[in-house]
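In this section we walk through a basic example: taking a raw amino acid sequence and producing a predicted 3D structure, encoded as C-alpha cells. The instruction is simple. Fold the sequence below.
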Amino acid sequence: MKISGLHTLDLSPGEARRLQGELAPRVVEGPTLELSQVRCVAGADVSTQGERGYATVVVLSFPELEVVEVRGHEAPLSFPYVPGLLAFREIPLVLAALREVESEVDALILDAHGLAHPRGMGLASHLGLFLDVPTVGCAKTRLVGKHEEPGPEKGSTAELINRGKVIGKVVRTRKNVSPVYVSVGNRIDLGSAVDLVLACCTRYRLPETTREAHNAANRLRRGEEPGVRSR
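The resulting C-alpha cell sequence is shown next.
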C-alpha cells in the first residue's frame, strides 16, 4: 500500500500534542464513498504485551467479507501510553504492516476514533493522512462529545456532538446491543463512513474488519501466524 512520509514519529508527548493541532486542518471530510465501487476493505488492530506491540492488517473482499490477505508486524513500543495520543504509540506498527499489503484496498476501518477526538486527530484521522485511501474510525467507547441514545434497531443512529459540531455518529450495529462510535478518519464523508461500517457488520456488534484484525493481532502476540486460524 502506498504510504506518504508525513512526519517523524520520534516525538515527546508535548511535541505530539502540538503536531496534532497542526495536522487537524489537513483532514478532509468527503467525498461520498460509493459502496458499489468498493472491492476490498481492510481493518487494522494492535495488541500489546508489556512494552511490545503486535499490529495486523486484514483485507476482506467486499461485500462478501471474506479474508483476502493478512499482514502483521511486531516491535517494541516506542511511545508511552498517553490518553489522546494513541496514534503515536500504534502508527509505527500499523504502517509497517500496511507496507506489506499487496491488495488494492478501497477503504480502511480502524478500531479507533477519527474526528471524534479532543483535537480532531484520532488514530483513524492521523493514519489517514499517511494513506491515499479513505479511513474510518469505529470505536467501542466514546472519547469526547455528547449524544442521545440511538433507537434499538440495527442501523439506528444518533449524532455525536462536541462544542456544537457533529463529530460523528453513534450507531447501533445490532438490535439491542451497545452502539459503536463512527467518525470520519480522512477522505470520506460521515454518511458513507456509517454505511460502510453497517455493511461490514454481520452477526456481531463490531464490523468484520475489526473482528478479523483483532483476532489476527492476538494470534501474532501468541507467536502464531496471524493469517492462520487455530482449529
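Looking at the output, two observations stand out. The two ends are 31 Å apart (CA to CA). The beta strands are 40-49, 52-61, 67-76, 107-110, 135-139, 157-162, 165-171, 180-186. In the next section we compare this with other chains.
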